[in-house]
Amino acid sequence: MALYPLPTAIILNRITPFTCRFFPKPLSSSLFSAAAVSAATTATLPQHLSYGPSLYKGHKSSHQNSDEENFTRVFDITALRVPAEQCFSLESKLRGHLLNWPRIRNIARVAGDDIDDELKEFIGNDISTDDETLTVLERRIYGKGEGDGERMCSVLYRDKLAKTFNSIGYVKFENLAKISRPKKKKWKREEKEGNGSVRRGYGRSDMSMVEVVEEEGSGDEDFRGLLGDDFRTRKWSGSTRLLLLDERYANKGIEEMPEAIKAVLKEHNEESTRLSFEIVRCKLTLLYNYWQMNEVLEVLLPQGMIVPSAFETVGHIAHLNLRDEHFPYKKLIAKVVLDKNKPKIQTVVNKTDVIHNDYRTMQLEVLAGNHSLVTTVVENGLYFDVDLAAVYWNSRLATERQRLLSCFTNNDVVCDVFAGVGPIAIAAAKKVKYVYANDLNPNAVEYLERNCVRNKLERKIEIFNMDGRRFIDSIFASEKARPITQVVMNLPNDAAEFLDSFRGIFRNKHADKQFTLPRIHVYGFSKAQDPEFDFHEKIRIALSEVAFEVQMHKVRLVAPGKWMLCASFVLPEIVAFAK
Ligand SMILES: C[S@@+](CC[C@H](N)C(=O)[O-])C[C@H]1O[C@@H](n2cnc3c(N)ncnc32)[C@H](O)[C@@H]1O
């Protein structure tokens, strides 16, 4: 990620270690200027950040080789080490005292907390009842000479240990030179298995990591060096887990723990001297992947700036609607959106202009990711290929399309005058008898054809590429066309103006012949105080007649005070037969 260099500098200056200082964002509009960096001042941590994880809290990591590492925060916490088999019951007992941070499991696993399978075999399953086995094992681990219970000198012990474990084929101790061990690369591969899940037994994921902080001078450094990091200088305890305690208890001793925790410790330490119930100090590291989009952006953008938190998606494309104030940071914002929404999102675009062309296509600028604007949208089990650069698509209308479809029956013949790539026409074709779909945009028609085939509905749809007015004329005049029962006119800016095309569509039909008056569903916008009345008036003017029993449906607010509406009514007979 090479996009953050300068904002990173700001983070470095604005976030201090664990002292819980909060640096307000520089008011300067230049996030990148040195002035902005030095403008950072300290203040106390605001109330809403005083609890729970925050980028404004914790220590910064000592590794800061990449921009992402600048978002690493290390938190000192305390944990209760408990036997693995009891951790779930204790978790529910102690829930109110546990860390309970979002996306962090209260039960953590760290290196060395599991007994190796081979060792399990060696000591048997029931370690707590077999005292002799345990004593022998403890001698091996803590370096006491068998028989006398005294400590051996390091050299002798090391030698003995190497021989002992070698002879029984015990290969887990990574630092024993004589024993072959898997190559580093292989370990790495194992760490991330297929779906990205983490290697068993290690408290590291791509979001967070828990490590036990070793006490200094515990006296067994020699053996740790020999046996590797998995070797723990604590009494033998079988498989254990860490129950991460609430941040209030960080760096606290047993006396300061709540009664519930003290009771657990007391109860078990009385019961057994072998099982490990102990308080340990830990480091919880939250990595870049842990933080959510808005948390990262909040740190990167100047204080007071609205953090873009929502975007529309069309297939693999995230579609932002950035404000003017965001423009200097558009690439930065897009990169974070991409990072935080991978792999679903592969491209981030911003709308550069309001839609004002005939084909209703958007002017888009690709800000991050791959530059292809051809994508596939799945809506209600149907597949739609879309080229956002050349055709219209709006995922927000999915619910409205469903509502409209619910008005159709399997006896209907639908005519979609402004069909685009076919979200209404193709979905209707699945349900109704037949569909006539039209669009003026040749690109939309190409995708409409493609989508019909893709959804195996090409036999139920006939496609046209002409102006809507001409299409209405010709489809109703055609002798071959089936009698149309439903007409959809989804071009909200202008569709009402096309309604005059229905005047006289049956003028050449004999009045005594059977005919079907189509039900029209026309979309429009209104900024009026009473949008329904206003739209009704537009329809009356376009038809030069009053349509009765008009059902008005408010689709959604497209801008403050601007409604998108759908009016549904049966074409008045007087209009259809007008001369
Ligand atoms: C708002 S889009 C709706 C498309 C589709 N119904 C949907 O929901 O995605 C309007 C469509 O009408 C088409 N269009 C614009 N003017 C037209 C005209 N005069 N005649 C026919 N189609 C037109 C545009 O190309 C565009 O695809």
TrEMBL record:
Domain called SAM-dependent methyltransferase TRM5/TYW2-type: residue spans: 311-573
Gene3D superfamilies cross-referenced by the UniProt entry: Met-10+ protein-like domains, Vaccinia Virus protein VP39
Chain sites annotated for binding S-adenosyl-L-methionine: 401, 439-440, 467-468, 490
Any GO molecular function: tRNA (guanine(37)-N1)-methyltransferase activity
Catalysed reactions, as listed in the record: guanosine(37) in tRNA + S-adenosyl-L-methionine = N(1)-methylguanosine(37) in tRNA + S-adenosyl-L-homocysteine + H(+)
CC per GO annotation: mitochondrial matrix; nucleus
InterPro entries in the record: MeTrfase_TRM5/TYW2, SAM-dependent_MTases_sf, TRM5-TYW2-like_MTfase, TRM5/TYW2-like_N, tRNA_Gua_MeTrfase_euk
EC number(s) from the headed UniProt entry: 2.1.1.228
A Pfam family of this chain: TRM5-TYW2_MTfase
Biological process per Gene Ontology, one example term: tRNA N1-guanine methylation
Highest taxon in the source lineage: Eukaryota
Cellular compartments annotated: Mitochondrion matrix; Nucleus; Cytoplasm
Keywords: Cytoplasm, Methyltransferase, Mitochondrion, Nucleus, S-adenosyl-L-methionine, Transferase, tRNA processing
Subunit structure: Monomer.
Family to which the UniProt record says this protein belongs: Belongs to the TRM5 / TYW2 family. Belongs to the class I-like SAM-binding methyltransferase superfamily. TRM5/TYW2 family.
Function: Specifically methylates the N1 position of guanosine-37 in various cytoplasmic and mitochondrial tRNAs. Methylation is not dependent on the nature of the nucleoside 5' of the target nucleoside. This is the first step in the biosynthesis of wybutosine (yW), a modified base adjacent to the anticodon of tRNAs and required for accurate decoding.
PANTHER family in the cross-refs: TRNA (GUANINE(37)-N1)-METHYLTRANSFERASE 2, TRNA METHYLTRANSFERASE
Protein name (database record): tRNA (guanine(37)-N1)-methyltransferase
Organism: Solanum pinnatisectum (tansyleaf nightshade)
